[in-house]
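Below is how a single chain appears once it has passed through the pipeline. First comes the sequence as given, then the structure the pipeline wrote out for it. We keep one example in the README because the format questions we get most often are answered faster by looking than by reading.
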Amino acid sequence: MQSPADGVPSPRTKNKEITRSAPSGKQRDAFFDNAKFLAIVLVAVGHAWGQILDDGAVETAYRVVYTFHMPAFILISGYFSRSFDLRPKHVKRLITGVIVPYVVFETAYSLFQRYGNDDPDHGITLLDPTYHLWFLCALVVWRMTTPLWRMIRHPLAVSLVLAALGSVSPQIGDDLELQRVLQFLPFFVLGLILRPEHFQRVHRRSVRLMSLPLLAAATVVAWWSVPRMRLGWLYHSSAAEELGAPWWAGPVMVFGTLGCSLLLTACFFAWVPRRHMWFTALGAGTIYGYLLHAFLVKAGNYAGWFDDPVFEEPLGVIGLTVLAAAAVTALCTKPVQRTLRCVVEPKMAWAFREDPGGTARDRERRTGTEVRTPGEKVSVQLSN
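Resulting structure:
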């Protein structure tokens, strides 16, 4: 019998190696953490720029960023929702990680509006999401329908049809931001379809080189569109008639803007680092930055900070940009996560029944043994 020193590990050594290597399969992908962090920085910067849009250069940059920053987020969300089904474990995570934070922060932002902006009549409603919280409502709908998208043929084509129909239906109204749910749906469905090799392809040198003229062209188009196209087309929150356009313009603009968003999203991914960076670890805390940064933006509005003439100067705009990026970075850090995990990522074990089947499956994965239900037949194979 050969010893481990002879080049063939013993069974005990194999088990130790498997134990050591198992956690590595669960390591976070640096690329996606980097992408999420850079996207949340763009979200915060975009919200800051949104308060000083009187400057043509700022609005041009704002339109470019708004073309792809949320599509990138939504596509990543779809990619990581591929395994979602209606098992109790997944539904529990949806409740604790999306629905509960939405309820908590929707209430908090409503109270902040009431007392911070001296608006005592401002009501608290969960049907009309505040500002950026529409994304959580959309994520609930998208994830709950994931089994459907995984089951049907041509899911992307179906989602595009729904997005187009949403753009011609003002009757949908503002409840739960269903216009955005429908019009951004294709990016979530696209994320469900993509595979790791697709993200590797956009990292080719040729794609990076092509992204530079594409970004330049997008900037020119954005500058041209400032006096000619309403921002609502980029928000995807309204039907065509609500934007003062004929109904048929809805599908045309939806397909056009989504196509531009897809190109710029690919350009964005092409430049996201694949290796560990100083900010990679912050990618795990982007939900904290997303939920919290709008308090600062709203506080600035309530206090009239953005009316200061300093923001009419280039140095003022640069300073605001740096400040927004630094603030959202700080909100993604571990101390903030530890402090607010109880409301952003609560465990809530007290609220749920234990799932015996899920516990058995987890034990099976840990031990490598087969767990059978009572009465289940077992096939036995005889080896020579």
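Residues 1-25, 370-384 have pLDDT under 50 and may be disordered.

See the next section for the split statistics.
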